[in-house]
Amino acid sequence: MKRRRFFSLTLFSFIFTTFLPVFHKVFAQKTENNFYKLGSLTDLEENGFLLNENLEIGAVLVILKEDNSLIAIEPTCTHMGCLVEWNKQENLFICPCHNSKFQEDGKVVEGLAISDLPIYQVKIENNTVFVANQ
Fold first, then answer.
1. pLDDT tens-digit profile of 39-52?
2. Which residue has the higher pLDDT, 6 or 71?
3. Are 74 and 62 in contact (CB under 8 A)?
4. How much is the pTM?
5. Where in the sequence is the signal peptide annotated (predicted)?
6. HSE, side-chain direction, 13 A CA sphere, residue 44
7. What is the pLDDT of residues 59-117, one digit of tens each?
8. Half-sphere exposure for 103 (CA within 13 Å, toward CB)
9. 76-86 exposure pattern, b = at least 16 Cβ within 10 A, e = fewer
10. 3-state SS string over the chain?
11. What pLDDT does residue 11 have?
């Protein structure tokens, strides 16, 4: 193999492997209304919540409230990135790191958080909990 061809192939391979993830994101993007499987309704009912930090749309926390309504949020505090926890008594999400507090709709109530928590659509089909971007 000639030297010039070798360098051309090496350069092409480098560029291809470097930009492959970018092309994948651009061409494989889902629409905003696509739902992602989060977990089973049985687990949600047993634990009172479902948490998945590895969904394609990001981390999602679904809470089953006492009135059987569902809340789905991105549980990463916007201050320092800690995972928020649901406090039933206060009806708030609270960050254990610096005590930022968020309403059910993700709005900051108090603390050092810099912005609201994103919320998600949630639906249940065939004993499975699904979430999607709002």
1. 999 999 999 999 99
2. 71
3. no
4. 0.72
5. none
6. 26
7. 999 999 989 999 999 999 999 999 999 998 999 999 999 999 999 999 999 999 999 99
8. 5
9. bbbbeeeebeb
10. CCHHHHHHHHHHHHHHHHHHHHHHHHHCCCCCCCCEEEEEHHHHHHHCEEEEEEECCEEEEEEECCCCCEEEECCECCCCCCECEEECCCCEEECCCCCCEECCCCCEEECCCCCCCCEEEEEEECCEEEEEEC
11. 56
User: Which structure tokens are listed for 56?
Assistant: 């394609």
Other Cβ atoms less than 10 A from the Cβ of 125: the count is 10
What is the amino acid identity at position 60?
V
